[in-house]
Amino acid sequence: MSRLQVVSGKGGTGKTTVAAALALALATEGKRALLVEVEGRQGIAQLFETEALPYEERKIAVAPGGGEVYALAIDAERALLDYLQMFYKLGGAGRALKKLGAIDFATTIAPGLRDVLLTGKACEAVRRRDKQNRYAYDYVVMDAPPTGRITRFLNVNDEVAGLARFGPIHNQAQAVMRVLKSPETAVHLVTLLEEMPVQETADGIAELHAAELPVGNVIVNMVRPHLLDEDALRTAAGERRAAVAKALSQAGLGGARRGGLAERLVDPLLEQAAEHAERVELEREQRAVLARLDLATYELPLLGEGMDLAGLYRLAKELRTRIAPGGTT
Fold this sequence. Notes:
Residues 5-180 form the ArsA/GET3 Anion-transporting ATPase-like domain. By secondary structure, the protein is α/β, with parallel strands linked by helices. The chain has helices at 15-26, 43-47, 76-88, 91-99, 102-109, 111-127, 147-163, 167-180, 195-210, 230-238, 241-250, 261-291, 309-320, and strands at 4-9, 32-37, 58-62, 68-73, 139-143, 185-191, 215-223, 297-301. It folds into 2 domains: 4-224 and 302-320, 3-Layer(aba) Sandwich (Rossmann fold), CATH 3.40.50.300; 226-295. Helix content is 53%, strand content 15%. It has an 8-stranded mixed β-sheet with strand order 3-4-2-5-1-6-7-8, sandwiched between helices. Strand 6 (185-191), helix 9 (195-210) and strand 7 (215-223) form a beta-alpha-beta unit. Mean pLDDT is 81; it is low at 255-259.
């Protein structure tokens, strides 16, 4: 199982929720997982119903079996200060530059630098060891940028290593890419059973493969249940008024005579059933597209009551039985 789990997806697919649930799933049975946020939206804090995350690793949840989930919201400015201190021993000078606004200026005008700092901090957490030479975290889960930007985000250190031919910047960039392009990393893509997210997922996978970045699984989120069996779907698609009216009558909703309750219910029920049948067919088409990607695909249910902490633990349990260690795959 890869130690760095990167979770991306088109906006609106619930990638932050999936990343949080995956961290809980991986921390089961006494493991330690670090959940990393790189976009500054504080989505992790909202999901775990806690205060805004600072630039420090903080325990935010206990997983089943006693495991622990820590979280870190990486701030590019603070990461740059760490970088200056680590490689150039410029801690004091770096703080002075921050007061002058130079740090903010540097990370704003150079978005590539920002990505270098964010990926570098996450990979440092993956490599970090304690005094007993054990990994500080069993798993690091990154709530990464959206699918349209994920390849460039992860591959930015490759570009930096090519530009800086020697020195600490070159060495750091190469060290990060050794992690990101190794079996230690898996990039999962979250999608919905809708045409645009599925197409963006397919495009993202092609880009990741072209960049030689390790693709993990496709996770289909918010899958709605099928309420009708095949016969009922065919009935809905065919708008069999008489058959539906008769069934309603047999169910005790009044006679099927014209103007009766059963008769009045036929049209709205057929309309809803037809919409459901159309959605089911569209979902089948998107599942066929995903199947052609030749990747393991897992589905998570739509939680009708909305997403809260209990729902997050439920999704973690679903993921535990699928892609986490000890699951069925």
